[in-house]
Recover the amino acids of this structure.
C-alpha cells in the first residue's frame, strides 16, 4: 500500500459507507470558530476490530465507532472539513488508511491515493469520565419526538442559564421533558416500559438535546442508554456516544403556572389555525408579533391593531366550544411554533381570562401540553 521506507503507526481498512456516516455524526461537534487548531480536527483511533472517531467543541463531544479490519492500532487527529469532504467523494467500497511518520494520514482506494496532514492525538482534549453513573434505558422514537416538541421553547438568554436547557424529570415509569423561556412552556410526558431503579432530574443544554434528537433520527435502535455523572451526561445510541456537561442550578417550579383547568375551550383545525396566523403574522411583524384572539361560540377570531403595515382579521371555524367568550393578546410566532410541532390535525385551545396563560394541546391525548403567556392588551 505505501511507497518508500516509512514507519507505519496505524493501518486499517473499512467501508466507505460506514466511514461517511460516522463522519457526518461526529462533525456535529466541530465548531468552526475554534481558536485551538486541534478542535477543528477529528480524532481517529484504530483499536481492536473497530475504528473510533471523535470530535469536541469543549461543550459537547460526539464519538462513533464501527467495524474495521485493523492491522496496526494507532491514533491521529485529522482536519474535519478536509477529511469529510474527501471521503464523501470516494466510491462505495473498501477504504484503506494508514498513518505515516506520525502525523500524515494516507487514504487509498481503487485508483486513488491521498495524504492529509494531521495533528498528534496527544493535543486532543481528554474526554470526561463518568464515575459511578446513574444509568437509564429510554425509547428512541418517543424521546426524539418529545425533544422536538419542547426544545424550541427553551430560552436563548444566557442571563438565566437554567432556562437555556431542557429539564428532564424521571420518576418511576414516567419521564417528563420541559422547556421554558418564561413566556411559553412546553411539557411532554413519556411513559417508560420499565420502572427506573432510582429517580433523577437534571438540565441538559438545549443544543445538546437538539444534537441528540438528530442522532436518534439516524439510528435504527429502538432504545438508547443514558448515563448521568457529576455535572456530565452521556447518551449512548448504538455505536454513537454524545457527552455533554449538565447545566447547574434549580429549574423553576413550573407546574404551579400550568392551569389546572380552562374556563373556555374550543377545538380548531391545525391547518386552518396555522393559515390564519400566518396571514396575520405578515401584518404584525412591526408590532412585536402581537395578535388578539377572541373565542366565540363556533369560531376563533384572530385580529390585529392597526400597524404601519395595516390591519388584519381572520376567523377560524371551531367546534366543541365550552364556556363564555374570552379575548386575549398573544405572540403570533409562539402560536405558529407550537402548531408546527404538533402532528395532530386538530388542537384544543383553552383560555381562562385576558391575563392568564392560554393552553394548546393535541386533540388526542398524548401527554403534551404547551402554554403561552398573554401580552398586555
Amino acid at each position: 500500500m505505501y511507497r518508500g521506507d516509512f514507519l507505519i503507526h496505524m493501518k486499517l481498512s473499512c467501508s466507505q459507507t460506514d466511514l461517511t456516516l460516522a463522519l457526518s455524526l461526529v462533525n456535529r461537534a466541530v465548531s468552526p470558530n475554534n481558536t485551538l487548531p486541534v478542535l477543528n480536527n477529528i480524532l481517529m483511533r484504530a483499536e481492536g476490530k473497530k475504528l473510533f472517531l471523535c470530535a469536541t467543541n469543549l461543550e459537547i463531544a460526539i464519538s462513533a465507532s464501527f467495524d474495521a479490519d485493523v492491522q496496526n492500532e494507532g491514533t491521529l487527529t485529522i482536519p474535519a472539513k478536509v477529511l469529510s469532504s474527501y471521503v464523501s467523494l470516494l466510491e462505495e467500497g473498501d477504504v484503506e488508511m494508514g498513518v505515516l511518520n506520525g502525523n500524515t494520514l494516507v487514504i487509498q482506494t481503487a485508483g486513488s491515493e491521498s495524504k492529509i496532514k494531521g495533528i498528534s492525538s496527544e493535543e486532543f482534549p481528554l474526554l470526561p469520565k463518568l464515575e459511578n453513573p446513574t444509568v437509564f434505558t429510554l425509547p428512541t422514537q418517543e424521546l426524539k419526538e418529545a425533544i422536538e416538541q419542547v426544545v424550541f421553547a427553551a430560552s436563548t438568554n444566557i442571563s438565566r442559564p437554567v432556562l437555556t436547557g431542557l429539564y428532564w424529570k424521571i420518576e418511576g415509569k414516567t419521564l417528563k421533558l420541559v422547556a421554558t423561556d418564561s413566556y411559553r412552556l412546553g411539557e411532554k410526558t413519556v411513559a417508560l416500559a420499565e420502572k427506573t431503579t432510582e429517580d433523577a432530574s437534571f438540565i441538559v443544554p438545549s443544543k445538546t438535546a437538539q444534537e441528540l434528537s438528530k442522532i436518534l433520527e439516524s439510528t435504527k435502535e429502538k432504545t438508547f442508554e443514558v448515563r448521568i455523572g457529576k455535572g456530565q451526561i452521556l447518551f449512548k445510541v448504538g455505536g454513537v456516544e454524545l457527552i455533554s456537561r449538565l447545566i447547574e442550578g434549580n429549574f423553576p417550579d413550573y407546574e404551579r403556572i400550568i392551569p389546572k383547568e380552562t374556563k373556555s375551550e374550543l377545538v380548531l383545525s391545525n391547518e386552518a389555525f396555522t393559515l390564519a396566523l400566518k396571514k396575520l403574522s405578515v401584518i404584525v411583524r412591526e408590532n412585536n408579533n402581537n395578535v388578539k384572539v377572541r373565542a366565540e361560540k363556533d369560531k376563533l377570531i384572530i385580529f390585529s391593531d392597526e400597524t404601519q403595515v395595516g390591519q388584519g382579521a381572520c376567523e377560524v371555524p371551531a367546534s366543541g366550544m365550552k364556556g363564555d367568550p374570552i379575548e386575549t393578546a398573544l405572540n403570533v410566532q409562539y402560536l405558529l411554533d407550537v402548531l408546527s410541532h404538533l402532528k395532530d390535525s386538530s388542537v384544543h385551545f383553552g383560555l381562562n381570562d385576558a391575563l392568564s396563560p392560554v393552553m394548546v394541546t393535541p386533540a388526542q391525548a398524548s401527554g403534551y401540553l404547551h402554554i403561552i403567556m398573554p401580552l398586555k392588551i
In short: Residues 1-7 have pLDDT under 50 and may be disordered. The radius of gyration is 26 Å. The domain at 134-254 is CATH 3.10.150.10 (DNA Polymerase III; Chain A, domain 2).
